[in-house]
Write a structure and sequence with these properties.
Elements: H1 20-27, H2 36-39, E1 49-52, H3 56-60, E2 65-68, H4 75-91, E3 96-99, E4 110-112, E5 120-122, H5 126-133, E6 137-140, H6 146-151, H7 155-164, H8 169-178
Parallel strand pairs: 3-6
Antiparallel strand pairs: 1-2, 4-5
Helix pairs in contact: 4-5
Bound molecules: iron/sulfur cluster.
Iron/sulfur cluster binds near residues 2, 100, 105 and 106.
């Protein structure tokens, strides 16, 4: 899972994007948290960066770049961070990744346009792309729901999780009715 979703202040602007569900899963030993940008050696804070001239697959193929808003080419570092995350995922037999939407590293459904104009395009970040290419299921924090989480945790943890999060209890009850 993206470290910033677990509450770590590792984003480019020194903030987190804490998500209570992600934090709960991490604190219950159900997730490995990673930040590909910090692993690649970027500082906190750091300039915002976007994928320019193509999509994440194009970046991995050497056909597009990742640039900071000052024009600096940081492509090699973004690929390096993505590869480090992939190595950890494969070593730990990770089945699914929950990543922060819109990031040039972690975005799952959307990333910024590459023009630093605030517009979003369909597409993934570089890390999300490399994980998907390896057959790992990739979800954004906006995709989080009880059914998905239940697939990747033990029954005990799933029950504890359902008890903890009232917003998911309706899904749990409708599941029970279906049995
Ligand atoms: S690279 Fe991913 S984990 Fe790190 S701050 Fe950006 S979105 Fe969060």
């Amino acid at each position: 899972m993206s470290s910033c979703l677990a509450g770590f202040k590792v984003r480019y602007n020194g903030t987190s994007a804490q998500n209570d569900v992600i934090s709960w899963l991490a604190s219950h030993g159900q997730a490995i948290t990673v930040c590909p940008e910090i692993m690649a050696g970027f500082a906190i804070p750091r300039p915002a960066a976007e994928i320019v001239g193509g999509n994440a697959q194009n970046v991995l193929d050497g056909m597009a770049r990742v640039r900071e808003n000052n024009g600096k080419d940081v492509t090699a570092s973004y690929i390096s961070g993505a590869r480090m995350v992939l190595k950890i995922a494969l070593k730990n037999k990770v089945q699914a990744a929950f990543l922060k939407e819109n990031s040039p590293s972690c975005g799952v459904n959307n990333v910024y346009s590459g023009n630093f104009d605030g517009h979003l395009l369909l597409g993934t970040g570089v890390t999300a792309c490399i994980l998907k290419n390896a057959g790992i299921q990739v979800y954004s924090e906006t995709d989080l729901d009880y059914i998905k989480i239940k697939s990747f945790v033990s029954p005990d943890i799933a029950a504890e999780f359902a008890a903890e999060f009232g917003s998911f209890s309706q899904q749990v009850q409708s599941e029970r009715k279906d049995i």
